[in-house]
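Q: What would this chain look like folded?
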Amino acid sequence: MRLVSLGGTHAKVDNKDAVLLCSNDYLGLSQHKLVLSQTVRALKQISQCSSRLIAGNTREVTDLEKKLAEHRNTESALVYPSGYMANLGAITAISGEGSTVFSDELNHRSIIDACKLSGAKVKIFPHNDDESLAKMMSRIPGRKIVVTEGLFSIDGDMANLKKICELAKEQNALVVVDDAHGDFVFGSTRSYSGVSTHLGVDDLVDIHVSSLSKALGCFGGYVATTSILKEFLVNKSPQFIFTSALPSHICASALAAIPLALEGGLQRQLFKNVRYFSRRLVKRGFLQSTSCSQIIPIWIGDEKTALSLSNELLECGAFVHPIRYPTVKKGSSRLRVTLSSSHTISELDHSIDSLETVGKKYHIV
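A: My prediction, written as structure tokens:
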């Protein structure tokens, strides 16, 4: 499948013009004029062509880390080339033999891979089931680490962070939260520092992991934590030590995007779109209740049906990607809609009408 961006919420997919309903550019900042101009202004070379520990540690990188630590209200932050690398870097460094990692069954693949690489024992607890987590943790001695997403990337539901953090502290366990999809979307006014802020448990999370390629519309990932843990990662995380630094002009992009994201207007427009879109999906039988986030899954079940629906929606001018096995369990395929503050009402109406037309054909409404 070949995609060419036509600007904002439109794309040409396999030569068909379509409303883009599967981008993670939640606040539309990837094409904001100020972000683009600041990126071009900073573009003096493509890359530092070096790791951070040799010749890649530029002023833009360190400035970005300071700004991200301020955003997350932590002592320090460490930038990685991607969110995937940030999860691998943090989890593999802090765990290992003698540790047990407790991971939610619906965690992102980057967390799954990090757990496998860590050398620690890995225990998978049922999704958001704090009672099962409590029983598992009470039976296992030694060093413990609990890892969960803040806003889950497939179904857009929030982790039960308050209870999870309380259980972890009772067990003297570290808490790692990957909030790539909640960061800069949820949180208190003018901080928008994610689900942990939204739920009031920032102080109970030991390591915050996030991405710069979601709500910020940029690229890269980061870990926000204490100064001691940051220094530990700098010296012990292979994914940080043995890879090239994030290019300076990409750091400049994020530095330009952060203040725009913190103004709050884009989030208000995003959730206005979420309410409008999900309420109409409920009325037309696609959802049982309105969505709590910008990620809206439409349950299909059968893998072939999900793929056929996606293809026919594209013919109608709406690009919605099907999520199928092995990303999810067999027989639990869904269409995953992700909304942006940039979507217009006419785009949302067109997409809803297209869903209804195709959905009736496949008897899912």
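Residues 33-261 form a domain with the Aspartate Aminotransferase; domain 2 fold (CATH 3.40.640.10).
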